[in-house]
Amino acid sequence: MSLVTATGIQVGTVLARRQRLSNFEISEVLFAPDHRLSWHGHPHSCLAVVIRGDVRKTFSGFEEDAIAGTVVEMPAEERHEDLFGPDGARIVVIESDQEPGRLRCFRDWRAAVLAHDISRELAQPDAYTALALEGLALELTATAARQRDIEHREPRLDAVREMLIQDLSSPPSLSEIARNIGLHPSHLARMFRARFGESIGEHGRRLRLEWAAERLVCSDEGLASIAAHAGFADQSHFTREFRRRFGVPPGLYRLTHR
How many C-beta neighbours within 10 Å does residue 110 have? Predict the structure, then answer.
């Protein structure tokens, strides 16, 4: 296999690293503060993940404030306008000829972690980068597709995820969640496990670890602060759980991905 390189391209206020594969074109794009992209569309379907900063995306029917952790799916030629925030934005974009379905925006920390891995591969290419990028692109596409399938089958399950994300340090009880979405606790528990393959508690633990992983990469926040915000008893508890999930301690994860 030949050496794969990712080329840095400066276009006005936009810096892009880009890699073309057989089924995907993968880019990481850095937008300047307060930059505006007037109405435009993309020739291919797009799956974009905001990994730093924010952007207000305006479509024909609605607006979305896409902050870190937001996933945006757009069909080909979907017209939109972008206004980036005072800190700009860093976005990973996967373009392909596959049809992503309807236009939608949602937050998913698993997708954010995968986008950070894509960013690292683009920044430090080697002989295996093409293979790694294709695998990450497929996994990110599958993550978005699974979320789409969940929303299609039972939109209230997406509300459960949003409730867990809102306060990672103090998650609601199963009874509270069930009462808020109008389902019996036992029915909710069975339905959630059937769709996600894990209990609501297990899912919540995974979400807070994925949130912590994203914070390690995109911020300089201390480990103790991240641990507290994610609801861990202390930094050592956070380190143990993080190592169990990602195979390395938080400090090494931050160093590797930055």
Answer: 22
Both tokens of residue 250?
């938080």
Query: What phi and psi, each to the nearest 5 degrees, are found at residue 69?
Result: 95, -5
Q: 147 and 29, same structural domain?
A: yes
Reading the block at residue 229, the tokens are 């915000």
Q: Which residues contact 251 (CB under 8 A, 6 or more apart)?
A: 223
Q: What pLDDT shows up at residue 8?
A: 42
Dig out the tokens for 49 from the structure. 């993940």
How far apart are alpha carbons 85 and 87 in whole angstroms? 5
Residue 158, CB-side half-sphere exposure with 13 Å CA sphere? 15
Which range among 53-62, 137-146, 153-162 has the greatest average pLDDT?
Answer: 53-62
The model's confidence at residue 6, banded by pLDDT at 50, 70 and 90, is very low
Q: Which of 153, 171, 200 is the last residue of a domain?
A: 153
Pair 182, 221: CB distance under 8 Å = no
Question: Phi-psi bin for 247: left (phi > 0), alpha (psi -120 to 50), beta?
Answer: left
> Does residue 140 form part of some domain?
yes
pLDDT surpasses 80 at 135 = yes
Q: What is the spatial distance between Cα 72 and Cα 91, in angstroms, rounded to a whole number? A: 10
In Å, the largest CA–CA distance within the chain is 57
How much is the average pLDDT of 214-227?
A: 90
The angle subtended at Cα 11 by Cα 71 and Cα 8, nearest 5°, is 75
| Cβ(168)–Cβ(230) below 8 Å | yes
Say whether both 116 and 30 belong to one domain: yes
Instruction: Give how many domains the chain has, as a whole number.
Output: 2
Confidence of residue 13 (pLDDT cuts 50, 70, 90): low
Q: How many residues does the chain have?
A: 258
